[in-house]
Amino acid sequence: MTVSLRGTREVKESYQLVRLTGLLDAFSEPTFKKVLTKLVDDGPKNIVLDLSKIDFVDSSGLGSLVLLFKKIQTDQGSLQIVTNSRVTQTMKMVHLEQFFSLHTTVESAVEKIKA
Amino acid sequence: MDRFPANAHNTQPARYEFVLTNRVDDLTRLSEWINDLANQLQISAKGVFRVELILEEAVTNIINYAYVDNEEHTIRVTLLYLDQTLTVELRDDGIPFDPLQRPEVQLPKTLEEATEGGLGIHLIRSYVDECHYQREADSNVLTLKILNWQ
Lengths: 115, 150
Description:
The complex is a heterodimer of chains A (115) and B (150). Chain A is an alpha/beta fold and 115 residues long. Chain A has a single domain (5-114), classed as STAS domain (Transcription Regulator spoIIAA), CATH 3.30.750. Chain A has four helices and five strands; from the N terminus they run ββαβαβαβα. The longest helix of chain A has 16 residues, at 59-74. Chain A is globular, with a radius of gyration of 13 Å. Chain B is built from three helices and six strands, in the order ββααββαββ. In chain B, β5 (130-136) and β6 (139-146) form a beta hairpin. The interface between A and B is medium-sized, with 28 and 30 residues. Chain B: This is ATP-binding protein.
């Protein structure tokens, strides 16, 4: 089976850091949604999602990010997204960047959670 | 990858073809193909991103909406490239499905308005200079053109 999205997870005291590489598209999106939903349920509810090494995100991936963001808000957590120019550009094309908390570094995202 | 290079006078476009099935895991092969091809043509990262996105969105639409059975189908992607103009043709044997007839999505003004779907055709329209659909015999043919692809 082809694997287009890979990830690692580090659990800290007040947040968890999820780093992803590869493609967040219509193929990987169902797995992304399932796994991230479980991670949020397991806690901590504050998530730093590192997409800086993502090669590509399409509208399916963006849709999953919207759902994830809404879930985390409902669960009274926080989603901080570390992005790159490709991901940010796609978000801007559909006006989603205004809702997400975007960062260029993991350190900046972690600081936001601790603030 | 089949390649039919341009003739000596470069009046005919170079032609590249890729065939995939209507399984979403074939999107990964599609991504690899377009990245390899763009690298071969020395296309910029921005140009690669642009065509990869429209291909993924267009093929995903076909997979999601053009088939009413559970059979395996073939989707044929043809690229024509001449003088920095890229013409993308996607041909499938699904039911008549014109993605360009889908209503223009209202971009969200609030997070509550943001939805999980419906953004793909907006992204396609945003990244191409021309788009056209026609039904040919039993096939859908979607043609997308990018000017100044480099």
